[in-house]
């Protein structure tokens, strides 16, 4: 699969099988992730690979619960009480994400501060470090797709549960689990856009400006 196919074929995968990922394939994907550009050459990142069965299960439970909390914040409540609304969102998350519990691997993209920016550079340095973790994770998503593996960048849980996530894998407070993803073979890769996104998704031509702002291609 060439790089353009892998980029086009990468989709947020939310249904996994329990098929194992070999060490060779896993290492190939992890090494590709860490070939990403890194601001100031800092390597202010790390990847935490969760394969232990109990820990994987704990991470999956946390992410599914975080998904439910996300839905409850994002979706209109209508006539339901807050409790009824949350219960409906928990049920929905359990309907669409249960195979997270069988995914054989989870990977956490970590921001690991290196304390290498002088005082006046710290704010910009933090942004660079965060961007660099994102680049590494995108490399991982594309490399995974080329190997037939699914991923989904997941951050919703962390608005609610970052400390519990830290506790599962023993992360110190200063290390930030920016993004996590299951890594596993899907039953199939999604194609096209889900209907809800289709209505609002902007085409590429409306997002490219030639020479001056507003001069888009559409
Ligand atoms: C920064 C970021 C955070 C995301 N967080 C979540 C998340 O918490 N849960 C989830 O299911 N998907 C999450 N996504 C995936 C997006 O929903 C998905 O990429 C988007 O809907 C486009 O679909 P596609 O990736 O299949 O093209 C996240 C994506 C990004 C870039």
Please explain how this structure is put together:
The chain has 7 helices and 3 strands; from the N terminus they run H-H-E-H-H-E-H-H-E-H. 28% of the residues are buried. It has a 3-stranded antiparallel β-sheet, with helices on both faces. It is mainly alpha-helical. The protein has helices at residues 3-9, 23-33, 53-74, 82-96, 122-146, 158-169, 195-200, and strands spanning 45-50, 105-111, 176-183. The chain has one domain: NADH Oxidase (3-Layer(aba) Sandwich). Helix 1 crosses helix 5, helix 2 (23-33) runs antiparallel to helix 5 (122-146) and helix 3 runs antiparallel to helix 6. The structure holds flavin mononucleotide. The site of flavin mononucleotide has 9 residues, from loops.
Show the helix and strand layout.
Elements lengths: L2 H7 L13 H11 L11 E6 L2 H22 L7 H15 L8 E7 L10 H25 L11 H12 L6 E8 L11 H6 L18
Antiparallel strand pairs: 1-2, 2-3
The protein binds flavin mononucleotide.
Task: Put the structure in a nutshell.
By secondary structure, this protein is mainly alpha-helical. 45% of the residues lie in helices and 10% in strands. It has one domain (3-192): NADH Oxidase, CATH 3.40.109.
């Amino acid at each position: 699969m060439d790089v353009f196919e892998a980029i086009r074929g990468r989709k947020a995968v939310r249904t996994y099988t329990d098929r194992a990922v070999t060490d060779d394939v896993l290492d190939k994907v992890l090494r590709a992730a860490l070939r990403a550009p890194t601001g100031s050459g800092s390597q202010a990142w790390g990847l935490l690979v969760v394969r232990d069965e109990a820990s994987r299960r704990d991470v999956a439970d946390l992410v599914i619960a975080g998904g439910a909390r996300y839905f409850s914040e994002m979706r209109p409540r209508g006539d339901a009480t807050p409790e009824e609304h949350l219960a409906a969102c928990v049920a929905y998350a359990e309907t669409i994400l249960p195979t997270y519990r069988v995914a054989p691997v989870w990977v956490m993209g970590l921001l690991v501060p290196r304390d290498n920016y002088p005082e006046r550079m710290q704010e910009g340095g933090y942004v660079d470090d965060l961007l660099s973790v994102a680049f590494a994770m995108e490399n991982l998503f594309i490399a995974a797709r080329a190997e037939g593996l699914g991923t989904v960048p997941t951050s919703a849980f962390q608005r609610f549960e970052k400390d519990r996530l830290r506790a599962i894998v023993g992360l110190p407070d200063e290390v930030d689990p920016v993004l996590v993803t299951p890594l596993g073979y899907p039953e199939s890769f999604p194609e096209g856009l889900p209907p809800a996104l289709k209505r609002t998704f902007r085409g590429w031509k409306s997002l490219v400006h030639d020479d001056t702002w507003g001069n888009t291609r559409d």
